[in-house]
Fold this protein.
Amino acid sequence: MAKYTEAFKLEVAQTYLSKPIGARSLAAQYGLDHGTVRRWAQQYQSHGQAGLRKKFSHYSAQFKLSVLRRMWQEELSCRQVAALFDLRGGHGVVTAWERQYHEGGLDALQPKPRGRPKKMPEPKPPAPMPAPADETRTLEQLRQENAYLRAEVAYLKKLRALRQAKEQAAQKKRG
């Protein structure tokens, strides 16, 4: 989107308001969109030269809600409300606020922080590990468990050896 100076916007708005020329022909003369010409003229009529200045604003949730309530009570269009409150985002901003309000209520209208977070969030301390069961067992219990595990491993090795022997015998019969 092209950036235009305040003086240029003022010239276009004053020309549109002072001469009996249509927005389309004036827009073609300046190389603009006719909607842009009308918007600048409306902002100039409503707010004077201040309506054509760049404006960087952050709006509170309460302000957004008051804008929406006024729009609903007076049955205004989004464009009319944007011009009335001098909202530089145009009617798209009001439309987005209305959608957010219907989807999430007042909480959805809260301003969101822009950009990256200031720093990485602090890591949470790890939860304390429960004491391993080995620390509470006696030496005799550990010896018994060790003997059981050795017997289990020996059994599995013997079982594997028997299966391999059986497979080899079956292959010899076939071949």
User: Anything to note?
Assistant: The chain has a mean pLDDT of 84. The CA atoms of residues 57 and 88 lie 9 Å apart. The two ends are 82 Å apart (CA to CA). DSSP finds seven helices and no strands in the chain.
